[in-house]
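Hey Z.,

So I finally got round to the adenosine-5'-triphosphate thing we talked about over coffee. Here's the setup:
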Amino acid sequence: MTPFMRQYTAAQQAHPDCLIFFRMGDFYELFYDDAVKVSRELQLTLTARDKQKSVPMCGVPYHAAETYIQRLLRKGYRIAMCEQMEDPKTVKTIVRREVVRVLTPGTAIDPSLGSDENNFLASLAPVGKDAFGVAVLDLSTGDFRATEFRGTDAFSLALDELGRLRPVELVLPESFHPGKAGLLADDEVELPGLEVRTRTPVEDWVFTADYALPLLQGHFHTHSLDGFGLAGHTAAAVAAGALVHYVRSTKQGELQHLDGLKYYQRGGSLELDAVSVRNLELVEPLWTQEGVESTLFHALDTCCTPMGKRLLRSALLRPMADAACINRRLDAVDEAVGSLRLREQLRRALDNVLDLERLLARVSMDSAGPRDVLALGRTLGALPTVLAEAAAFKAEGWQMLTSGFDALTDAYAAIINTIAEEPPVTLADGGFIQPGRDAELDELRTLSQSGRQSIAAIEERERERTGISSLKVRYNSVFGYYIEITKANLNSVPADYERKQTLVNAERFTTPELKEYETKILTAHERSVEIEKRIFAELRTTVLAAAHRLKETARRVAEMDLMAGFAHLAALRNYIRPQIELEGCIYEVVNGRHPVVERRLELAASGRFHPNSMHLDGVEGPSLLLITGPNMGGKSTYLRQAALLVIMAQMGCFVPAERMRLSLVDRVYTRIGATDNVSRGRSTFMVEMTETAAILNTATERSLVLLDEMGRGTATYDGLSLAWATVEHLHNRIGARTLFATHYHELTLLSDQLSKLENLRVACKETSTGIVFLHAVERGPANKSYGIDVARLAGLPQTVIDRARDVLRLHEKAENASVRGAIPAPPQPALQMTIFTPLSQKIVDRLQETDINSLTPMQALQLLDELKRELEGQA
Ligand SMILES: Nc1ncnc2c1ncn2[C@@H]1O[C@H](COP(=O)(O)OP(=O)(O)OP(=O)(O)O)[C@@H](O)[C@H]1O
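And the result:
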């Protein structure tokens, strides 16, 4: 192996799970499998390092590497940056190279990250038998949180939490195998419900309290972790410690902005499990081709700042559960709705606020250039106006943000007085420090400036002296300053010119005078860049000393932005303030609209949204609405709308309705649509039943439960039986406010027995040209299903439609004959089945269990009589 290859192999062995970006002069080169992968992912040309073509290679220019790196990170790759540690000019042998940084999807801080979304790195820490810690960290903002779960379902709760947070990278103990630990089926490799591209195993010992706790204390310079709320929460602390360990191992710089950690507990908020977050399309569309327009996030996002947008996203995933907090925000929004002028002034001021958190993170991790720091400074400059505008509002929610608001005028002044007005992107060539900031720097700049002027003057003078009008004085980084003379004029070159370099058409010379100026200019420049870098480093320290204050200010700005955004939205779309009830289990909406569907119809100019009302009352009933009606009628929309309005109200946002009253909901459960999970080895039906089981086992009377077309994934009678029993269980045992949409019309009969069940139907009209959907939700059961009519609208061949109608008629006839209106009554569970079990079955069973050979003629007659009466009794 050549020394070069030895160097490469060492880097690779130290970072086996990374692509090695190997710096060679002006390029980063990749070799072997890395080269093959990267050339495919980034469409780069694959070459070879050797003649035998046994070492595939591809490369990217170092100055353009950032974009390539970002693309690879988004695809889930990890990258080790192996840099040249010596100047190639100063060493005779091969230059020393070292991996100086490891870049991973979860530790990215680059400017191309989506600004309205956190970039979460997460860890899962199994501690003891049934405790799991979960920690998440957004290195690009410094947001760092941890929680833990204990008990028999700790693992699934932890997975659910991770599913909700949707990290881009998950750190786990190396030997953790949920199958072997009996948490999942032995052969299950995926963690259910989690779509994390990058899973990063870390040595097991990192996930121990003995290591992780002191590590955290050391990082935060504290004697205990109690101040973060971590007392007694070892699993959470271990998960957090593992993240700090991991981030440090990637050599990401000093991490000064990572100055706090928050212990949080699920339960302090309206709980939304990962399934509901997905089904309700809160932040992501269910199907990628739909685009973000179908998400609630998109419909609600009118925030001006990236911090506001990120807060909106996390508020959506964790709406509040405390009436006082919700009302405080609603009061604040209400006040801002009332004053267009003040609201607009505040929003205009917020428009000038850039991503404070991410800029700070870049400064902290030493990847901020002069332009980033200036951007941070200018943003700080916008804060006094933001404060002044926000302070015009008097509601408590505003006062809590404006009183004690730190506009960081000192940090602002430090930056603006230091960084030049139009600085270059990088530090390399200087020119980013204000004149007047440092006397020595100014002097050196004048020196190098006058040197340059003198050189310009030399060109003029030498042209005159030699009579060569094409004579040029130029500079390049290898040869320094030179006088260039074309071949044709060489005979006019004076004797004091010294030859430096020969080109095809010209010769380059120098003179003692030129050399002298060159030295002066270059040393002055070098020295001035050094001073500039020193001043920049001092400025960085000053800014970082204010990191804690800056983060608090960023938090307040985000909240102001969110509230002003909610107010803007309410005014723009005619949303109203929901009324939060402190007692009871009420959920009442008058003329509510689905915020996303309403927008979609508006934008597509394809009709108006038909508002619908709803009344649920867990205490005095009705607590369960059973919704029937044709396909495409609007059942799912009605269900989803019910959930979205609750989520919006509990975020402190106004809602699309004429009136809304809500006793707070503790948790929203959804069983909507068939999410295909076949790739994970679970059938559609199995997924549906698992989700339903979770609801029936954990919903409370304060929950909101949405069940859409439950039971359709299996044989009709099985499905109907399960749906039937589920409705009874929800109604009799749980009492949760429930919306149950179904195509099993048989279920509507339950209203005779279940006092709090109300039948609703979505209205439609039959016309001569087919069925028309009115999207109006009315009282009463649907009297007919229109499956065949809808199928016709979808374009099924007429022959199939006609045949389907025939078959349907036959079926209905048969069913009428056997059912003949038998309404099941609860005390006789056996009879309940009769509504959908053909009655002859009982007789068939009786006959089958009879041994004719052992019957006397008398017994046979008795049996016949019994069967006859059975038949008559049922008829
Ligand atoms: N209230 C409404 N006003 C206007 N349009 C609506 C309304 N509700 C639903 N729609 C439109 O009707 C379409 C179908 O609605 P939805 O999916 O809710 O029907 P569904 O009854 O659940 O159908 P299926 O039983 O086939 O699942 C929606 O995409 C929407 O565009």
